[in-house]
Amino acid sequence: MTDIPLKPKNETFTDKQWQAVFDTGDNLLISASAGSGKTTVLVRRVIEKLKSGSNIDELLIVTFTEAAAREMKERIQSSLQDAINKESQQARRNHFVKQLSLLPRAHISTLHAFCLTVIRRFYFLIDLDPVFRMLTDNTERILLKEEVWEELRDEYFEASDQEFYQLAENFSSDRSDDGFTDLIMSLYNFARANPDSTTWLNQLVQSYDTTHGLAGNQMYQTQVKPLVLANLQTAIGQLQAALQVAQSLESMEKAVVVVANDLEQANRLYAYIKEDNVEQVYAQLTSFDFKRYPTYKKEEEKELSKQFIKPRRDHAKELIKDSETFFAQPPEKMLELMEQAKPLVKKMSEVTLSFIDRYQKRKQAKGVLDFNDLEHYALDILQANGEGSEASSYYRDRFEEVLVDEYQDTNRLQEAILFWIRKPDPAQGNLFMVGDVKQSIYAFRLADPTLFVDKYLAFAQQNGGRRIILAENFRSRKEVLHFTNLVFEQLMDEKVGQIPYDEAAQLVPGFSDFPESDAFNTELLLYEKEVEEDPTVVDDKTEGELYLVALKIKELVENKFMIYDKRAKEKRPVTYNDIVLLTPTRKNNLVIMDIFKQFQIPLEVNDAQNYFQASEIQIMISLLEIIDNPYQDIPLVAVLRSPIVGLNEEELTKIRLAKKNDDYYKAFLAYLSEDDELASRLRTFNEQLELWRTLARRRSLSELIWSIYQETAYLDYVIGLPSGRQRHANLVALAHRAETYEKSSFRGLYQFIRFIEKMQEKDKDLAEPLALTQENAVKVMTIHASKGLEFPVVFLLDMTKQFNYSDFSTRYIFEERLGAGIQYIDQAQVRYDTLPYQAIKQQRIQKMLSEEMRKLYVALTRAEQKLYLVGSYKTKEEALKNWQQALDQENLVLDPALRLKGKGNLMDWVGMTLMRHPDMQKVFAEAKDSKKVLDHPAHFEIHWVNQAQLQKELNKPKTSVAEDFSLSTSEKTEIDDLQQRLDFVYPLEKSTKTTSYQSVSEMKRLYNDPDDQQLNRISWQSNIEQQQAQHYRYVTQDLAKPKFMQADRIDPTTVGSATHSLLQLIPLTTLPTFDSIQEKLRQLVNNHQIEKQVAEKIDLTAILWFFQTELGKEILKKPQLVHREQPFSMLKDARDVFLDFHEADAELLIHGIVDGFIEYEDHVILYDFKTDAVYNEISRQQFIAKYQGQLRLYRQALEQALNKPVQHTFLVLLNSKENIELFTE
């Protein structure tokens, strides 16, 4: 440690920041908490080194992203220019000028970029061809991997390698071998993140060693045993607490007996685990007897049971059942499974090594390197078989210091590279690492936070270096920081979070200019969802939460909530631009956009939806598909309907009718010979399509796309749409992606389309265009995207979203240190978890939860001034049940088992940390019974809003923001002029409110007198209210109710639709029986075409009855003449529908589906099924009247289409088992 200069009195840096700037002589780890100014410290350290005489090209500065590298260069440049302006000594000025000239060549970059520099300079040390290009395009990389893998896989299959066959069968399904491919690709990615991929892969089989029995297996001793012991310790503690409560009342003797029995068994199990008596452990777990808890009627006993005894006992039961997962089989069976899995693991490693070798050789043959190669080749160059090379010596001598930003996101391969660059002698340590392990959230990039943690703990003892902790936060108000400390001092430690949140890690307020106010306490917005979710719509709870957030944002902006402006150094009203919505994933972004649009809240959404779901991209892909092959109905209709051609439904129907029973493209070609305006437009488009098809064969793919943009002016068109700039960026990205695609060895439109299809199947994006900003809009982004950013007001959404365990449901699982765990499938196709699989799975789950905790830390620390946490529970009682388990905790840090319990979520974590705070006693009376009451400066508020309260808020009339403004005379004149324009009555107004498309199911409701032989017309004006209430499509009115307000029980319409689906699929070649109908229904349920609950409501006896009637027998007699579920379209004059609609040439396109008809040579029999309940003769007559108008439309449509009369029309009432013939007069 060198002497640190005295800090001037006017210096704004804290003592710790000052030390971080000037301390040298050791490897240094700067643990910089959120908002502590780490980048400022890093830049200042560089500038001070330059001031002391160092040169900028003698420093290696490693950043996590290229953007961070650019920012670092810009800040150093600015600081140098400032130093030049202030420096009076010419020699020092010249030195600073020299540094500016060296800056473009300085080693300030990502580690990948530095590795490329190493390879360019020392390629000859590993006999690498210096002529190569970077495989930067993800498209080409994926396709090249697939090509190599398919070749290697086929060779193994052709060689009749039985172990390979068994491996493939173990990980493939009966439909494809995609699972097997995913296994090898996943293992490849894991192996390549290791400095020595070969050794790591070859050691995987060691975890399956059974030489010393189950208790002697290393995986059991280091992973399984500690975890089970920890679970049992917590379970015993919960049972002891429950027993103590039960013993407080003599009348609860039965409960005492039950809980004491549980406790005795748990203690016995704990002893067996400690003794490594695995046989007894298995026996005890499989025979563990949880007695039935007694029922109490007295209020005091019921409350004690409900609030204190049963929740603790349930938690203990859950922990003990979790331990059972490790002992699902007897110990001898577990050993047998490991022996059977061992050859599969060995072959899996062999195949992956073969793939690595083949893939590397293929890339060498093509003269390409990918990013992973950069790190591995650089390490090979530097380490020279573990002894260090001339390249290592060169860089160790060249670099005075190696500075690493975001060190917590480094992986083991990158750590090995840094080892061969830094000084080898710890006494001359020149490695300066800056980061915050509490913000390590990049496990999906295989970042290893334990590298940071190991140094953090070791350097605290000055073992190998020193650590400096920057705890002062210059970003946030004390209210945000105190709340964050309250949460994480109870949640985060070495077990969950991977670092202790001790006094040294506490966030300390560092910005003192915030004015004092009670308005900035953190608030929890909780939606109490009283009804079950409707599985057929977007998540109901999500909509409820978002309506709460939208209302709160409106309230903040319209009531001018005051925040402090750091730049202006004064208070001002909050704007939309000050607010961010942080989300765990992008899944709900489209819902957010929809709801905020209703409130007219401007949004800027970072990656609002999957790239392929953007309408402009879907249209372009459809156009490319028909350029490749026009005989594709869906893409062709999509293009014709799109703005590129601009046809409406009526025109599309006319084309369809040109060749009703042929491909749509043939109908399209047939219509070209017509002599009307539509045919003229189609001929123009067809000529253009043929030109593009010719161009696709002769020119590059990107040239084709740009030609389309130019000739259709599509780029200009999308600019004028909402989010036009983003749409424009999407289309440009598609052209660029096509260009990079063709730089690979893959060519052609057909291959490009196939590639896109694969990307869509794997749910991957083709491109990620840059987000485009708006001046004043609420920002929406993921927690990952928010890292490094700050916002005055933060809403953290969807906090009751369950943690995602889907990654742990595959047949394999990997971990950097523990290796590979697999499931074994025996000859009977029974799947078993091996011990390594279970152990690694639990370790990965713990690491996943640790990262979720760190994501929560990142989210909370984005807030400068006001923090809102948003979630939902069915009831307050559900939240209390989840949170109150913390009340038994006597230690500050909550028990690991509470933090690691399954099916958890972020809000449950936060809720548990709040239960022991005095503020919680205002919310839950039970909080008064906490064993430990926290004396903490944090304060918070919890707001519960139930469905009725939310609906009441949504129903309040909206006031115009314009009412708040006073207008000048000139502005009033402009408004009067505008008002005259707005008051203009368009003569064809009714046409604008009447869509040209109607379904029969909508039209049937319009008929006042269904017995009239002509279509009865309805008063357009008189039925507006009715239409609005029923949300008819043909009149545009106010928004519908939120979906979360809609009922979710199985309604008769759903059962009716399912009945129609079943009737459509029953074979007509044989007489249906009850068993055959039931079997067909079972198939539909198994194929997820009908929900099981709905299937149970279908009356199968009514269907059997129908086929025994005369009409049913006629259908079975001539099944070849029967048409079922036949769609039709027909044009009707709008004046035939609406009484007071007088505009000529206004037609409606009416669409419907006929349940069935029998088509004879000279006539037709029409029938339609109905499942409505008919209770008496009155309701029967009303029912017939209700549907006559609909059946009359069906008759007219069939007679027009078939040019045959409909002689008989039957209404089949399945509920009352009647066939009623209509129109018999």
Give your account of this protein's structure.
By secondary structure, the protein is of the alpha/beta class. It folds into six domains: 15-132 and 370-470, P-loop containing nucleotide triphosphate hydrolases (Rossmann fold, 3-Layer(aba) Sandwich); 134-193 and 334-366, Orthogonal Bundle (Enzyme I, Chain A, domain 2); 218-328, Up-down Bundle (Four Helix Bundle (Hemerythrin (Met), subunit A)), CATH 1.20.120; 522-607 and 776-951, P-loop containing nucleotide triphosphate hydrolases (Rossmann fold, 3-Layer(aba) Sandwich); 611-761, PCRA, domain 4 (Orthogonal Bundle); 1044-1222, Lambda Exonuclease, Chain A (Alpha-Beta Complex), CATH 3.90.320.10. It is globular, with a radius of gyration of 36 Å. It starts with 14 loop residues before the first helix and ends with a strand. The model is unreliable at 533-539, 765-772, 959-971, 992-997 and 1002-1048 (pLDDT under 50). Belongs to the helicase family. AddA subfamily. Residues 504-788 form the UvrD-like helicase C-terminal domain. This is ATP-dependent helicase/nuclease subunit A. Heterodimer of AddA and AddB/RexB.
